[in-house]
Design goal:
Shape: globular
Number of helices: 23
Helix content: 40-55%
Number of domains: 5
Strand order of the largest sheet: 12-11-10-9-18-19
């Protein structure tokens, strides 16, 4: 048994000894084990029945009976198993709560429903309808919610109205490629059974009488009123930004502004997240405590700090209400509320324990949050920052307080730099995994933009909200001053050379390993934490995009991409299925898409992709199929292919229809490997029945 320079003892006994020393931090691993059970549920290709709920009480009984076992390792394994089964069971319960019928095929019908939410974008408007009725004979299941896109004016519509319109309805879109973001699963956990677009004007056929009978509708009315006021009172260039941070609706932000914010690493300022909740809560807390401190009798006889925390909590609840109460907003609310509740109970406000409790609550209530980029990135940033300030926070505070104005300013700037750097480093793996890119100058942009957001924009936002009934435009104009500076920072940094690094994505397994190793380093306080560092560096610096195939084919077969080299991708068209093409670019990285190449030979009958000894045919018309059957090793057709084409491997219209988009890797041996959307998803409640048909 040896000892490293960090004092880590090799061998099982040494590791267990150091873990025993950190016994007070064992609880912090509970949400990690819970998340493992949730991840297990979402990675199954079969549907677990409610009988699996019995695993949790069974594990609880075994864990209680084993509490007196002398072997500590066995007890740890049993309690870990309990947490895993609890996460798995939470998914089953949540699934049955949100479960609703899903549309199976395209339908054109007349829809009548209550308007629940309205999102006004630049070119289109999205409406969420509930209490749905369809015309007789449409053979549509009893959908709970429906999301429609309208390209005509909907300014006269507001939540609570009963609307009627003719619409084209579609099942929620499937993943753009195997392993990609699953929109059908996302819609399922929002109880949205179909999406579509209106093909007629909306008729108002009624309205819910009396007080709105649903908090969601009441919240939506508030948000609609706020958006209308912002559009009327705020400067045009900042109106979309203000609407986004007030109501969570980013639809009114110009595309150029959104792209600049993303490429500069400032997109998080547009989403109602822990940052905004923290800013709003912190401002209300500080102002309330300051005002109470001016009243000597109250300050000396009452716990004004706790009173300020309760007022901040009330303000946060109001902010959550007008933000639409989305899952991401609720998650941020729980995180920040835990901080103020800790103050009320004389606990350390910002600690690992409070964040862990918030994570447990969120994962148990909304287990599907684990798969979202916002959950992963927000908790990665919070955990990393708490770990940082557990290590250097006291020293930084001593440095700041031990000098004059210069030291206070230097300490503040250093704190922002450390916070931006560590948060950016912690969220980078998740940004690459979900978006295939990182903002190279995020640290610089956040260094200047975040203080402006917290010290100028959000305080004036509170003032604007308080004076909104008086139709006063001045607070909005003051907000716009700060927002214009933030947009200028985003514009400049996003246009610097190499501002965005497109890296392509990587496997879920790799992300999981990076997360576990990072958690190992952040949670443990003894020297055992350093054991994860070499493995973490190996995973990061030996990074290779591992998911990009040689060929991608869309579900319809109308679009396909073929790898020409590491720098170029052949794209069959730039006019069809543009959304899928954008999603594919995240997978491949931002390599140039070309529509001609010496490796792809096209004529009016179809295309041939030639790679070494392999010939992949993409026929356009039936006449070319006979020749393709003789010369190709693989045929990918958007048309049905006759069964007598027995020479090559065939992927035709019915394969694409039943199995979804295909990824194909060409092997050096002349063989190939195929993955489909359905291969990875299997038979789950959110998957349309046609995908769940038996495989050939």
């Amino acid at each position: 048994m040896g000892v490293t320079k960090f004092g880590i003892r090799f061998g099982m006994s040494g590791i267990l000894t150091q873990i025993e020393r950190d016994r007070s931090r064992w609880f912090f691993w509970f949400p990690v084990a819970l998340a493992f059970g949730i991840a297990l549920y979402f990675n199954l290709t079969w549907h677990p029945s409610v009988i699996w709920l019995l695993t949790t009480p069974a594990m609880a009984i075994v864990s209680v009976l084993a509490r007196n076992i002398c072997y500590q390792l066995i007890r740890l394994i049993l309690f870990t198993g309990l947490a895993v089964s609890l996460g798995f069971s939470a998914c089953i319960v949540r699934e049955h709560i949100v479960s609703a019928p899903v549309l199976q095929k395209k339908q054109v019908t007349e829809v009548t429903g209550v308007l629940l939410e309205k999102s006004s974008g630049i070119s289109a408007r999205r409406l969420l309808l509930g209490d749905l009725e369809f015309e007789q004979g449409s053979n549509i299941p009893n959908l709970k919610y429906l999301r429609l896109t309208a390209r005509m004016s909907v300014a006269h519509l507001h939540p609570g109205q009963i609307l009627k319109a003719r619409a084209v309805l579609l099942p929620p879109p499937a993943p753009a490629y195997p392993g990609g973001f699953d929109f059908q699963r996302h819609s399922f956990f929002q109880s949205i059974g179909a999406v579509g677009y209106s093909i007629s004007d909306f008729q108002i056929v009624g309205e819910i009488s009396g007080f709105i009978d649903n908090l969601r509708r009441l919240s939506s009315r508030f948000r609609s009123a706020i958006a209308s006021n912002v559009k009327q009172l705020a400067p045009t260039v900042a109106a979309g930004f203000i609407t986004a941070i007030s109501t969570g609706d980013k639809g009114a932000i110009p595309r150029e502004q959104i792209n600049n914010m993303r490429h500069s690493g400032l997109a998080h300022l547009l989403a109602i997240s822990g940052l905004h909740m923290g800013m709003i809560g912190g401002l209300i807390f500080f102002i309330t405590r300051l005002l109470l401190a001016f009243w000597p009798y109250v300050a000396l006889n009452y716990p004004i700090k706790k009173v300020a925390a309760l007022v901040a909590l009330l303000g946060l609840t109001g902010y959550l209400f007008v933000s639409g109460m989305s899952v991401s907003a609720i998650r941020a609310y729980i995180m920040i509320s835990a901080l103020f509740l800790a103050i009320c109970f004389d606990r350390t406000a910002l600690s690992f324990r409070m964040v862990v409790v918030a994570a447990l609550i969120i994962l148990l209530l909304f287990p599907e949050s684990l798969t979202s980029a916002s959950f992963q990135m927000s908790f990665a940033a919070v955990f990393a920052l708490i770990s940082l300030y557990e290590t250097v926070g006291q020293k930084l505070g001593q440095f700041t307080r031990s000098g004059g104005l210069f030291r206070h300013l230097a300490g503040y700037i250093l704190g922002i730099i450390l916070t931006s750097f560590v948060a950016g480093l912690a969220t980078a793996p998740f940004a690459i995994f979900h978006f295939g890119q990182v903002a190279a100058y995020s640290l610089v942009a956040n260094l200047f933009a975040v203080p402006i957001m917290g010290l100028w924009v959000m305080p004036w936002g509170i003032v604007a909200f308080l004076f909104m009934p008086l139709q006063v435009s001045f607070p909005f104009e003051m907000m716009a001053v700060g927002i214009n500076v933030i947009l200028w920072i985003a514009d400049k940094t996003s246009h610097w050379p190499f501002s965005v690094q497109y890296l392509g994505t990587f496997s879920t397994l790799k992300l999981s390993l990076i997360t576990l190793l990072s958690m190992w380093f952040m949670i443990w306080k003894t020297s055992i934490r350093w054991a994860s560092v070499p493995f973490l560096f190996m995973l990061i610096f030996l990074y290779r995009p591992s998911l990009a195939p040689d060929i991608l084919v869309s579900e319809t077969g109308n679009l396909y991409a073929a790898r020409i080299s590491d720098e170029k991708i052949y794209l069959s068209s730039k006019k069809v299925e543009k959304f899928e093409a954008k999603r594919w670019q995240l997978l491949f990285g931002a390599v140039p898409n070309v529509t001609s190449s010496n490796l792809v030979d096209c004529d009016p009958y179809g295309c041939l992709y030639l790679k070494e000894s392999q010939v992949i045919a993409f026929p356009k018309v039936n006449q070319s199929l006979t020749m393709d059957c003789e010369r190709a090793t693989l045929i990918i057709s958007r048309m049905p292919v006759a069964r007598n084409c027995s020479g090559p491997w065939v992927i035709d219209k019915f394969d694409l229809w039943r199995k979804g988009a295909h990824s194909i890797w060409l092997e050096n041996s002349g063989d190939f490997r195929i993955e489909t959307v359905n291969d990875l998803r299997g038979s789950r409640p959110w998957v349309p029945h046609r995908y769940s048909m038996p495989k050939n």
